[in-house]
């Protein structure tokens, strides 16, 4: 029996107020993103991540630059209206067609600015949509705390401490995964070599027949 279609998950929304003027708040989120984004926890390169850049135009890329010259495409700018709004697709480490939609607005709030972030398109995660949304709820809270320069907040301290504790385990798991991949590669090479040898054997026997070779008689 077919399962009934699940209703789409509502967009995730985050709101943060800072004491900066709107222009500074917008510039920090976009042009200066590489100065505050927590690459040590939220990047593909992790320890090898050098910076992230948001190209300030519609069609501009959000790109992580990794030590060694490689890049990772996080998303593409779909709306550019400084200093009021920026929107972009979001698919770090995944194909562009899996991208969700992030919309960020900046409005004056007294003498400061209020950032409002909306993250939608959870259906792109399929069965993992609810889990992904819960993860991003924490993730965006952590990232925006860095944007607001609140690195001493409880959330930032907690995630940083957890990351530090888990890092040795993650390194061991990465090393095991690399060793396993290398072993599978070696086995694949061995299988191909065996198949090639086996496939050449009939050809060798045929060559012997063509050239009149005969087995050497046994001496009794």
Offer a quick outline of the entry.
The protein is α+β, with helices and mostly antiparallel strands and 220 residues long. 40% of the residues lie in helices and 25% in strands.
Please tell me about this protein's structure.
- The chain is an alpha+beta fold and 220 residues long.
- It has two domains: 12-151, Alpha-D-Glucose-1,6-Bisphosphate, Chain A, domain 4 (2-Layer Sandwich), CATH 3.30.530; 168-211.
- 40% of the residues lie in helices and 25% in strands.
- The protein has helices at 22-29, 33-36, 129-147, 154-210, and strands at 12-18, 49-54, 61-66, 70-81, 85-90, 100-109, 112-120.
- A hairpin with a 3-residue loop joins strand 4 and strand 5.
What is this structure's SSE topology?
Elements: E1 12-18, H1 22-29, H2 33-36, E2 49-54, E3 61-66, E4 70-81, E5 85-90, E6 100-109, E7 112-120, H3 129-147, H4 154-210
Antiparallel strand pairs: 1-7, 2-3, 3-4, 4-5, 5-6, 6-7
CATH topology of the largest domain: Alpha-D-Glucose-1,6-Bisphosphate, Chain A, domain 4
CATH superfamily of the largest domain: START domain
Q: What is the arithmetic mean of pLDDT?
A: 83
Structural class: alpha+beta
Describe the sheet with the most strands.
Answer: 7 strands, antiparallel
Between the first and last Cα atoms, what is the distance in angstroms? Answer: 76 Å
Strand order of the largest sheet: 1-7-6-5-4-3-2
* H/E series: EHHEEEEEEHH
Radius of gyration: 28 Å
Please report the number of helical segments: 4
CATH class of the largest domain: Alpha Beta
State which percent range the strand residues make up: 25-35%
Helix content: 40-55%
